[in-house]
Design a protein that fits this description.
There is one protein chain. This protein is mostly helical. Helices cover 73% and strands 0% of the residues. The chain has a two-stranded antiparallel sheet. β1 and β2 form a beta hairpin. It starts with 6 loop residues before the first helix and ends with a helix. 47% of the residues are buried.
Amino acid sequence: MGEITDVDALRRALAENAGQPEGPARNARAEQLLAEAELLAVPLAVVEALGHQLKVYNYSSEKDRMFVPFARLLRLWDERPEDFDAYETHSLHWVFKWMSAGMLDQPHVPLASVEKWLGEMEHRYRLAGHSERAVRAAEFSVASHVGDRARAERAYTAWLAADRDAMADCHACELRAQGAWQAECGRDAKALELWAPVLEGAYTCAHEPHTVLASSLAPLLRLGRAEEARAHHLRGFRLVRPMESMRGAYADHVEFCALTGNEARGLELLAERPAYFTDTGQPRSRLEFLAAVTLLTDRLCALGLGGQPVPGPAGRTWTARELADHARGEATELAGRFDRRNGTSHLGDRTRARVAQRPLVERLPLGVRSVRPAPPPPAPSVPETSEAPGLAALLAEARRQSDTLRPNALEAWAAVARAARDTELEPRDRAEIADHEAMARGPEGVALFERAAVLYAAAGDPGEALAARARGAYVRALGGEVDAALAAIGGLYDEVLALYADEATGVRQTASVVISRARILMRRVHQDTAGPAARAALAAAERAVREVLALVEGRTGDEIRLAARAAEAHGMLAELAGLAGDTARAAELFERSARAYVAAGLPWFAVEYEVQVAALAHQAGDAAGAERALRAALEHGGPYVEPVGRAQLHLQLAEVIGARGEAGEAARHALEAAHWADEAGEGPTLGAWARQQLGGLLLRQGRYAEGAEVLESALADLSAGTHGDGAVVQARWWLGDCLDELGEHREAAEQRLRAADLARHWPEQQDHATLAHLAAESLGRAGLTEEADRAYARAGELWRALGNQRFLVRALRARAWLALDGESGADAARHLMSDAVHACEEARRDAADRVTREELTAELAHTHRQFGDLLIRSATEAPESEPDRDAAEVSEAGPDRDASEAALTQLDRAAELFAALGAEGLHDRTGAELAAGRLAADLGRPTEAAARARAVLAAYDAAGDGEEPAGARRAEATRLLRAAETGEPG
């Protein structure tokens, strides 16, 4: 920072400080600049420095400090108004509004003083000739703050009725306040209607739509518009995050998290802003923040997480319960101070209502990375009361669930087992309990299957005893003991068939043994994968599966278990067909199996087979078939599919739907995938994949802020080791695109350069070159000229190595413009543009086909056109190489004639090449002709200018005036012709 020696230097320093982030550092610099302004002995300099200081205080956490500089400004105005220029006069009256709001937000300022200040504002505005619109808006703020509904409605009506003038708040800020009032009055739909122009970008300012996005969250949730609320949270929080002065809006985002089951994200927000707990410069926003913190931590306590560590005020550790008590106490005390000042209970009532809210959505997936709070430890078991279901009822329910193959049957039998402790049961009851406990234990349940078999035999059911032993044999096969399982099942198979033939057991028990044998033989198929043994295993398994079908088909009727056996057998045949290479038959049989499960009322069993259908359809290039199967799997699986399975289904569906261009629906599935991956504890792995896809889909929809939030979240977990460097490069590429669209060009360049560094090691260098080129564009837009030139040079070398002359030419052209605007100057710019022309001409000569030649012809034409424009710009600037040439001489001589003549040559060549492209090049050709005509006129050659104008008019003889850009070209040519013929300005 240089020393401030004059007013111009002061103004530069003030402007530089105004562009710094909000906060104490900017405020301290403003104080320093005021001290230096006072040393200049220029009254206006002091006025400007005071105005700047007041502004930075207002947009910071130190709002309470703005009253002193304003009081001094007002005294200076009253003593010497002539020291204020028009801008500072306007600014002084403008910040009267800040003072009114600022006093209202400080509970130590008496309400009488606020009212007196409101009167002073009205008086001074009247003297200055301003409308009363801003005064009535300020009166409305006072009345609504204290809860005087009648006065607020009168002031609101008067505010809207008064004329808008230079003192009125911008449209965005006015609509924000009007919508907030409607929401406070319970008119959420009206509030959102008022906010719509701000939310859609029709009206913006330095702090809008930031606040409106935050204010809209709760109304949207109350109206059931949760998807919009999610989008507003992601978009709005990105705007609010870096702005220290927006604690109230920040609190709305914390509240949103508490109301949507996103408590973990709410805690992340608290961790980002520890100073918000203690900054006292604006008590009103601190009250709003503390109320939101209380709501969030109360929610954690209600979930049984009161003992969980949470971020809070610095200096100690906090649990959720401790922070809830602290924040509630602070908020209650602060609201009480306001209410005592105001003489009402309005703010206390609003604070209590805010804290008492209940979630409006059980859990709204956001798409961003968020680790869920750790669940509380399991509660100790409590003795059963007389109100608990009796053992008989539990047994009946467990049998109902297992007989109908309900997904929760094992849990029902576990409940029976708990209830039956220390109770004498019949052998059949004990057999079923042991049987289902064995199923629940998996490989550890083999011994229990044997115990169940003994009990079934004791109960007089030898067929079910064989079925239990068969289940035990299959579990052994799952554990890798296939040979032992086959040996065991052989005897069981023979026994059950003998019993069945003697009508000593039923088809259900027999089918259970037969399908267990088929399952074990299917394990042998997967074990023997090559040679004669594999063929033999396939044949044996198929015979066994067909025995199942021969036994149960035609006998299923209302017997769900037999229907399930038939469906499973068709699935096995499908698997065998796939292993034999008949994928079409496999897909057909998988579909048949899925249909059979659905027809039997067991849709959750169909999911496995529908996933197989989707995979085979994808393999066959049948995207529509894959989509149908995946949709069916999601529909049939419902809540019974494990979270990780749901995540995978949604992610696969997102990829299929996204590939056919439906980015909106694909994004919804990617969002669900991220949510379920987080639920499954797979956030860093599967969840990162889903977020990467979601970010790209949001980018495709033009939802850049949401996309950036999601992609930044994905990149926190994406790694080359886990996900592959391709996924990381793509995420950074997409993030760079989002940031560039948001105007965050430096950050976009950083992402693109980091992606390029990963891609530089790939065998194929197209992506590396493209990313380097895109990074150069972002660096140029960020004003980092030297860095942009280096990036373009890197891209150019890569394009050259790839033989991509078109993009080499574009890189050279971009470097030429950077040189012209930078330290290299016009000579370097001309050399670079000349290199671009030569590279393009050479590539055009070597073009192997007509299409490539035409593409390069167009590129060469654009290069000549840009060369001409560059020469014109360089010609109209005073040459630095002629320091003795004064301004009058330059003005009399006009543009540098040599450069201008060279520019005409380039424009003529551009027009000639565009003409060679026929109708495709018409508008570019006429643009070059008009540029040449204007230059000819500047060089004092009206005849040439007129001829060029006529050539443009002739080119559009067949085009109507309303066709664009034909109409605009004709109008411009007409003006140029008239100016050339009459000597009047064109």
